[in-house]
Amino acid sequence: MRGVVLLLFVVAPIADLVLLVILGRAVGVLPVLVLVLGTVSMGMVLVRAQGIRTLGALTRELAIGRIPGRQMLDGLAILLGGGLLIAPGLLTDLAGLALLFPSVRRWLQSATRRWMERKFEAGVLKMSVLRWDSGGSPVRRGPGPGLDPQKEILAPPPEGGGGPVP
């Protein structure tokens, strides 16, 4: 984790600065400035378009009663891409622009899923499920076999709101 933080906050900005200086010496300051401003402008247009498209897909999934997992990941990637576009530098701009293309997001989601599956199988990552009572506190499971989703039926919430009725 420290390596990732070091990479994001130290190595990437230094690499961006070095690249800007090298390009500035090679082609001049004005073309580099136009390139940086061009990537930011193109990114703003893409962030808006992809954000609206993703929000529409998310709304459609919710309307038919499905969990919009892929759309939520798309929204997160678009947000991250927009944030990278705000940071000055060509490398961060290119990374931000890449996250705005659906094909790149699909590939990234697929690679992340495969990585997580390997970690779950190896026992490095673990997942647990908690139940919450109506007071907002987690319900601790005893030493028994656990919940049986086929037998557990929750009544709808009362008219005035509130949580599930036991």
Question: Secondary-structure blueprint of this entry?
Answer:
Layout: H1 2-27, H2 29-63, H3 69-86, H4 90-99, H5 102-122, E1 131-132, E2 138-139
Total number of beta strands: 2
Q: What is the ordering of alpha helices and beta strands?
A: HHHHHEE
Please give the count of helices.
5
**Which structural class matches the secondary elements?**
mainly alpha
What form results from the Cα inertia axes? extended
What fraction of the residues are assigned to beta strands by DSSP?
A: under 5%
Summarize the amount of helix as a percent range. Answer: 55-70%
Mean pLDDT: 82
Please state the oligomeric state of the protein chains shown. Answer: single chain
Cα distance, first to last residue?
41 Å
- The strands making up the biggest β-sheet line up spatially as 1-2
Low-pLDDT ranges: none
Radius of gyration: 23 Å
